[in-house]
Backbone:
């Protein structure tokens, strides 16, 4: 926690501060976070409910009562063992009591019933979350699985975020683990195609692009209007690395390199 807070603070005061989002903390570590921040600190917080949907009220109250913390979002994962529609109903009920202006995301596991759960999430004007990586190969969705998720979110009108595995802009294989990683730029450009009415197979094709030159060609054809539509859907991604995404963006010429 101490290391994460120090790194977050450094990036918030650095040259690329405009790229830094909220500080994400599991609800199980909220008390530790509160014990470590200073009396005059101010932290924009995303709360990840690893303790379950039933604990949303208590965790949100603990954040809102702390003047050092500003609650930005709450994320609730659904259990892959649960019936997804029922679990989504329960999560959405708990999220219904959030303060005004706090966004909410329901993490959907890649199991039977996820699309039905997504429909419920979208109907309540909440966001969806998909895990795009992890410590085992099975934690990484295929291009088709991710394309189906993106396509469904666009069709349902739901904003979405992704988490894990998106350290780099372009799809690649990790030489150390052999895992296939999605690229966050691939995801963004795939969403651009989806909002223009592209098929699931076309969206999957964009997710599969590995050549940075080809991906930049896709990027060059995106209008400001299309980009705006896409960003209403793909709203954020969580990453335990900040320097790797920034390095990729500067290396691709998509943002200007700043002095250290």
Residues:
């Amino acid at each position: 926690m101490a290391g994460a807070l120090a790194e977050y603070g450094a990036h918030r005061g650095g040259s690329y501060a405009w790229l830094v989002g909220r500080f994400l903390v599991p609800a199980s570590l909220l008390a530790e976070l509160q014990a470590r921040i200073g009396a005059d600190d101010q932290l924009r917080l995303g709360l990840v409910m690893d303790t379950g949907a039933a604990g949303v009220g208590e965790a949100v109250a603990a954040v809102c009562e702390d003047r050092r913390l500003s609650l930005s979002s709450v994320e609730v994962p659904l259990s892959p063992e649960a019936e997804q529609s029922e679990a989504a109903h329960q999560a959405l009920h708990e999220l219904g009591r959030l303060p005004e202006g706090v966004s909410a995301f329901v993490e959907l596991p890649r199991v039977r019933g996820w699309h039905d759960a997504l429909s419920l999430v979208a109907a309540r004007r909440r966001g969806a979350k998909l895990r795009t990586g992890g410590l085992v190969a099975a934690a990484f969705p295929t291009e088709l699985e991710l394309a189906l998720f993106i396509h469904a979110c666009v069709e349902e009108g739901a904003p979405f975020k992704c988490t894990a595995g998106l350290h780099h802009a372009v799809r690649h294989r990790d030489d150390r683990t052999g895992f296939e990683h999605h690229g966050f730029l691939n995801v963004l450009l795939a969403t651009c195609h989806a909002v223009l009415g592209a098929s699931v197979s076309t969206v999957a094709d964009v997710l599969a692009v590995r050549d940075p030159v080809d991906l930049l060609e896709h990027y060059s054809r995106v209008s400001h209007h299309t980009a705006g539509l896409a960003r209403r859907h793909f709203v954020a991604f969580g990453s335990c690395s900040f320097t790797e995404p920034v390095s990729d963006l500067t290396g691709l010429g998509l943002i200007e390199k700043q002095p250290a």
Q: What stands out?
A: DSSP finds eleven helices and nine strands in the chain. The chain has a mean pLDDT of 95. The longest helix spans residues 143-156.
